Amino acid sequence: MLTSDLFSLPTLGYVAITLAFILMVKSLVKPTYPSNIPPFPARPYPILGHLPYVMKGQRISEYLKALAQLGGRPKDVSMLTRTSVSNNICSIIVGKRFDYQDPFLIAFIESFQKQAKAGENFSPVVIWPWLRHIPGNFLNSKTLNREIHAVIEQFCDKFIEQVTKNEDDMPECFISQYWKEMNKMKAQGKSTTLNVENLRWSLYQLFFAGTDTTSTTIMWYMYFMLRHPHIQKKVYHELSEVVGVERAPDLQDKAKLNYFWATVMETQRLASILPQSVPHLCIADVTIQGYTIPAETVVLPNLDAVMLDENTWEEPQKFRPERFLDDTGALIKPDSFMPFSVGRRMCLGEALANTELFLYISALIQRFELQPSVEGQPPEVSFVEGVICPPGRFEVRFIERAASETA
């Protein structure tokens, strides 16, 4: 039987590999990354800015309709959730949405799954691309690198071609705006990092980060609600009081749903969706609490060490949304809460991700009661180790609120 909601921490081998490469990277990173070559996915990209698009209610309703069609039968909805979230990213980037059964969309999502499988042991090639030059399939680096390039060549390039084939009539989307700005800078003779190669990698990053992290968070939220039905009831009660049941939640409701947000934040803290942040480079010698970090050292922030720290959080292994509420019920955000990392290099997609999480999860709990596949037997904790850590497979029964309340 489980004694807590916390799964095991990353394995010793995972940590040992990370430490070993941090020790050697100082002497290698500078000559490996000349400034005049296109960036590998883990390297910095041109600042994307705020995406001027917000999801519409009908997009969430498609997802809810698909769940309702299950008729209360138990189902692993991880693929359905990933498809729905990916479709939203497509609408932002390409300016169009796909049918859930569209072969192109399914193949696109499956390609990311292949990539995730290739890197399930946290292949360091994600962070140190020079590893791909080591002979053999070192730490699965060749396989992972091949899967990454397959996504770019088979999908990102096709997206760019579809949008830009008629430059006089391009849809309003990220690709078209990037393309117009790139050509504008070229016409003015200005130096710019906006180019086709950076666009390809930017699309890859947006699809990967915008789909996997959000869909993984939604699945972890479902998992925790199955294990804590009394918390699920409190979330539904708050939604009923603030939003009601006659309309779907919208962005104007966000600031009024403190307990809801506390459960989302606790999911982000405990689920360890992204155990480590992206690499940062120390640009000057710095001393922190007696430790000297030399210039040009690659620093890999360990988010787990902060968000699961027993000296910072009371009973960090337990799911307790109340830790994010003060005595008056107001929402609080401790400095040690950093699912999107911190500082100037924190995740640029935080606002978009939180918008997606709000619209998906609030609508989900408002319409359905989440129940385990077998009554009274919630799924046990499991997770898939990798750069992004989704939960292991589990099934959910989605019971429409109207049906459950009259039963």
UniProtKB/TrEMBL annotation:
Q: Which UniProt keywords apply?
A: Endoplasmic reticulum, Heme, Iron, Membrane, Metal-binding, Microsome, Monooxygenase, Oxidoreductase, Transmembrane, Transmembrane helix
Q: Which cofactor does it need?
A: heme
Check the record and name the PROSITE patterns matching this protein.
CYTOCHROME_P450
Sites where the protein binds heme: 347
Q: Where are the transmembrane segments?
A: 6-25
Kindly give the InterPro entries that the UniProt entry links to this protein.
Answer: Cyt_P450, Cyt_P450_CS, Cyt_P450_E_grp-I, Cyt_P450_sf, Cytochrome_P450_fam2
What does the entry list under GO cellular component? endoplasmic reticulum membrane
Its membrane topology: Peripheral membrane protein
Q: Which domain of life is it from?
A: Eukaryota
Q: Which Pfam family, any one of them, does this sequence belong to?
A: p450
Its localization reads:
Endoplasmic reticulum membrane; Microsome membrane
The entry lists its GO molecular-function terms as: heme binding; iron ion binding; oxidoreductase activity, acting on paired donors, with incorporation or reduction of molecular oxygen, reduced flavin or flavoprotein as one donor, and incorporation of one atom of oxygen; steroid hydroxylase activity
Instruction: Give the record's GO biological process terms.
Output: organic acid metabolic process; xenobiotic metabolic process
Is Iron among the key words of this record? yes
Q: Which family does it belong to?
A: Belongs to the cytochrome P450 family.
The protein in question is named: Cytochrome p450 2u1
Give the source species.
Plakobranchus ocellatus
